[in-house]
Amino acid sequence: MYCHRADNAGESIGGLIMSEIKIVDARGLSCPQPAMLARQALQRLNKGTLEVLVDTRTACENVSRIARNSGWRVTVEEQSEGSYRMVMER
Q1: CB-CB contact of 62 with 32 (8 Å)
Q2: CA trace torsion 57, 60, 64, 65 (10° rounding)
Q3: Cα–Cα separations (whole angstroms), residue 58 to 10, 71, 74, 89
Q4: Which terminus of the chain faces fewer neighbouring Cβ atoms within 10 Å, N or C?
Q5: Distance from CA of residue 13 to its chain's centroid?
Q6: Residue 50: enclosing H or E segment and its boundaries?
Q7: d(CA 80, CA 90)
Q8: Is residue 55 classed as helix, strand or coil in its secondary structure?
Q9: DSSP string, 2-49
Q10: What angle do CA 23, 33, 20 make, to 5 degrees?
Q11: For 9-45, how does the pLDDT look when each residue is reduced to its tens digit (9 = 90+)?
């Protein structure tokens, strides 16, 4: 599932303009679907911030590798019950 969240989109906070965060919720999907969805979203976005949610370690590793190999900075947070939240920025 691909959606977006406008976290104060266009609002100025301390002189910085906040931008939209795109979200891919790939929880419950089997490999290679999370990686494919993330790759498509990264290609569409080209730069900015993408958040990807997955629920397996393998999906987390695959999505992170794709993003890093494409020049994105990746931050991974392990969430409750074995799910992962990845934030990709460029």
Answers
A1: yes
A2: 50
A3: 35, 20, 16, 21
A4: N
A5: 23
A6: strand 49-54
A7: 27
A8: coil
A9: EEEE-SSTT-EETTEEP--EEEEE-TTPPTTHHHHHHHHHHHHH-SSE
A10: 10
A11: 444 445 454 567 899 999 999 989 999 999 999 999 9
